[in-house]
Design a protein that fits this description.
324 residues; alpha/beta; TIM Barrel; eight-stranded parallel beta barrel; 9 strands; globular; GH; hydrolase; chitin binding
Length: 324
């Protein structure tokens, strides 16, 4: 098995991960993976593709209110030209371009899809459209293929609610594994001469079991994934018990929350996940707090302090979000 050291970096939104692949992958022994979010306006022609080996396109969405809630959508009018350009420029620079599906707001119907054989079949066919080459003319308004190199399945989160609009079932993780097996089998059959990867953005804890607790044995998932991208960011934010670093390397002292990169690695590997199939997420952004004390005059000075739960407004697209 070939080990890949990878850093997953978000372009425009910015986060980074360190990631491995299986022996079937052909990208060498290192990977640097970036997320591209098309609505932030970052021009693709300004990318320095030499910094990356993979780019994840974020996201393909699944909506309850969509004409068909069980297929994957992008805004073709707005995003289609950007996705075409990203794939074209990425491939010209030797970069693999991957479709990331779901995310915080786009995972609404994953639970329903994974639970039903007919919905799984429909969803897989929808996903394959992003991997197949386009056989229509280049100026076709909607291509029948996007010629991408893999799928990054960002279900947030099997067996746990994530966004409040998501459907959740105690059987989610079992059904997720079945969906993945069917996706992997289909991809290996259809793309036998052009290997496509399957990855997943995951929490700092493994997937949840039927009782809602995190699984302690996840070895059944190893064959279906090339690697997982552990989201070791947003550990502290306006929702947490105190101020603290966004992505701590080690657990914070009290009163900081006891989560970190080291904790995530220990938890996943203790559950049977191989280190060579882990991409470690690193953010290239920060979080703001409104504290209830003057941190400059505290003795000793510390980065852990009480706060109001209101996030100060940053850039034009930010809001003054309030967290309980």
């Amino acid at each position: 098995m070939k080990v890949i050291t990878a850093v997953l970096v978000a372009i425009g939104t910015a986060m980074a991960l360190a990631a491995p692949t299986t022996k079937r992958a052909v990208y060498g022994d290192k990977a640097v993976i970036g997320y591209f979010e098309p609505l932030h306006g970052f021009p693709i022609y300004e990318f320095d593709f030499s910094k990356y080996t993979h780019i994840n396109y974020a996201f393909g969405y699944m909506w309850k209110g969509a004409p068909d809630p069980y297929v994957i959508y992008i805004d073709n009018a707005v995003e289609g030209p950007k996705l075409k350009e990203l794939v074209k420029r990425g491939h010209a620079n030797g970069i693999k371009v991957i479709m990331s599906i779901g995310g915080w707001y786009g995972s609404q119907t994953f639970s329903e899809v994974a639970a039903d054989p007919s919905k799984r079949k429909k969803w897989i066919e929808s996903a394959m459209t992003f991997l197949r080459p386009n056989t229509l003319s280049d100026d076709a308004p909607i291509p029948n293929g996007w010629n991408m190199d893999g799928l990054d399945i960002d279900w947030e989160f099997p067996g746990r609610p994530g966004a409040i609009c998501n459907t959740v079932s105690p059987s989610d993780t079992t059904n997720f594994l079945q969906l993945l097996k069917e996706v992997r089998a289909h991809m290996d059959l259809e793309f036998s001469s052009d290997y496509k990867t399957i990855t997943s953005a995951v929490s700092i804890f493994p997937w949840a079991g039927a009782d809602g607790s995190f699984l302690t044995d996840i070895r059944a998932f190893i064959p279906v994934f090339d690697w997982v991208n552990i989201m070791v960011y947003d550990v502290h934010g306006p929702w947490s018990t105190s101020t603290g670093p966004n992505a701590p390397l080690y657990n914070a002292p009290a009163p900081g929350d006891p989560f970190s990169a080291q904790q995530a690695l220990d938890t996943w590997t203790s559950a049977g996940w191989p280190k060579e199939k882990i991409a470690l997420g690193t953010p290239f952004y920060g979080r703001a707090f409104t504290t209830t004390v003057n941190m400059n005059t505290r003795h000793p000075i510390t980065q852990y302090a009480p706060h109001t739960g209101v996030a100060p407004k940053g850039g034009p697209s930010d809001s003054n979000a309030t967290f309980p």
